[in-house]
Amino acid sequence: MTARVVLAYSGGLDTTVAIPYLAKMTGGEVVAVSLDLGQGGEDMESVRQRALDAGAVESVVIDAKDEFATDYCMPTIRANGLYQGEYPLVSAISRPLIVKHLVEAAKEFNGTHVSHGCTGKGNDQVRFETGFTDLAPELDIIAPARDYAWTRDKAIAFAEENDIPIEQSKKSPFSIDQNVFGRAIETGFLEDLWNAPTKDLYAYTEDPAIGNAPDEVIISFEGGTPVAIDGRKVTPLEAIEEMNRRAGAQGIGRLDMVEDRLVGIKSREIYEAPGAIALITAHQAMEAVTIERELARYKRTIEVEWASQVYDGLWYSPLKRSLDAFIDESQQHVTGDVRMVLHAGKATVNGRRSNHSLYDFNLATYDTGDTFDQTMAKGFVQLHGLSSKIANKRDREAQ
């Protein structure tokens, strides 16, 4: 049986070179599958044609923008999904969707193998392959960049020697991954931690010091999902796109971080995710008003584990599904409006309102009309600190 490899095709250097290389190594055929996740830039028809020019027998482009926004970005917002407290999982949440469509393509085109362009140093190899084994363990997996020890220099040389159309050159060594939720940039001079990012690295955000006038925005949520901006109803995709534009104009969402990769090494990554950061900031503010204290406290621990599961490529794991169920339950009252000022790199919340609010003005006020019974506080404080008081008494007497 002739091998047929279904390749996750981005149109970049590694996956373009992979097409003829996989055909050579397997003696089979390559089907290229590309997803439009709202990354913008190059026309997807050009990406499709490049795969054919590189030797693919089939090249498929799937418009998955709305699916990505609804089923992957929105859960991330509801989970306040920030790996290491900063990174909104821009690349990590796209991989399980790509896996899903590659598995479907393998069924449609009688694929025997699936393949990706990831190296052995990164997280994406785990995200792809764990997803493949979860959804279609019968498919063999090939990772040419990892399994055959490809480096970027070797890939460029191979492309030049075999007249393979690529966009990258030796003068532009950056690795960039982007979708509607944000951009990730690495390699090149960024590998020296002392080198500052240059302005040409950014595409979704303006320089926050440029001095654009402040932009006030009201984001409305229903069940933890943004459904309107300034009173205008929006789809999940439209919410992200509009906040990318407005928060991006203010330089919001730029990240320069050293993150702990799953494989155990530290990596310097530059991210820009204006819409993601603005929407998560607004969502956190809405939760602060509508989620009860103990639930909110426990959800924060869940958010850390949720982000770790997703970052580590375990989107389809039983634990991640269970965390989703917890988060979905926690969101039933996260409905209302958050007002923010977008300016100079920051999204600053300055107003919240909700029919589900747990904020009671009469309990909170220090002015006339205060309904809080302060006589209860003395006994509460004494009981609250009782166990600590007893322990400290014991420790003093033991000295």
Automatic annotation (TrEMBL):
ATP binds at residues 8-16, 117. It is found in: Cytoplasm. Pathway: Amino-acid biosynthesis; L-arginine biosynthesis; L-arginine from L-ornithine and carbamoyl phosphate: step 2/3. InterPro entries: Arginosuc_syn_C, Arginosuc_syn_N, Arginosuc_synth, Arginosuc_synth_CS, Arginosuc_synth_type_1_subfam, AS_cat/multimer_dom_body, Rossmann-like_a/b/a_fold. GO terms for molecular function: argininosuccinate synthase activity. It catalyses: L-citrulline + L-aspartate + ATP = 2-(N(omega)-L-arginino)succinate + AMP + diphosphate + H(+). This is Argininosuccinate synthase. Keywords: Amino-acid biosynthesis, Arginine biosynthesis, ATP-binding, Cytoplasm, Ligase, Nucleotide-binding. Coiled coil: none annotated. Signal peptide: none annotated. Belongs to the argininosuccinate synthase family. Type 1 subfamily. Homotetramer. The gene is argG. Residues 174-390 form the Arginosuccinate synthase C-terminal domain.
